[in-house]
Amino acid sequence: MKLRAHYTMKVKSIGSIAFFQEDWMELKEALILAKHIDKKKEPQSLLSFEDEKGAMWSIKELEKLNEELKKLEPDQLQVYFDASFHKETGDSGLGVVVYYKLGEDAYRLRKKSALPRNHQ
Q: Which branch of life, at top level (predicted)?
């Protein structure tokens, strides 16, 4: 999910000033930005985020979405490929291993397959 930030603050002598970020950021980056701005404790400020479809999200909504995605979307993917060949028998094969995290749990998927012999 790509987001861009909308930040509005009230200044006594000027009124409301709105800032808009043109660059898109990932959900994790948006939450880091929100945490950083929250530390500044501007009493009259509002931070929201717009997604690629034009929908607006509050920080609370994004945090809830992030928690749901942690349970549903794999994270920290690592993929390894391997191949083997036995000279004596002429057998060969391919394998793949995928490591990932889903929430706090780590998983591993392994698949292997023998390749058909090349008869000449």
A: Bacteria
Give the per-residue pLDDT at 117: 80
Phi–psi pair at 58, nearest 5 degrees: -85, 170
C-alpha distance across the termini of the chain, in Å: 52
- C-alpha–C-alpha distance, residues 66 and 72, integer Å: 10
**Residue 100 β-bridge partners:** 107
Cα 47 to the center of its chain, rounded Å: 21
Cα(11)–Cα(8) distance, integer angstroms = 10
Mean pLDDT of 89-102: 92
pTM beyond 0.85, yes or no: no
Percent of the chain scoring above 70 in pLDDT = 95
Q: What angle do CA 53, 30, 70 make, to 5 degrees?
A: 85
Dmax (CA) of the chain? 87
In this structure, what DSSP letter does residue 12 have? T
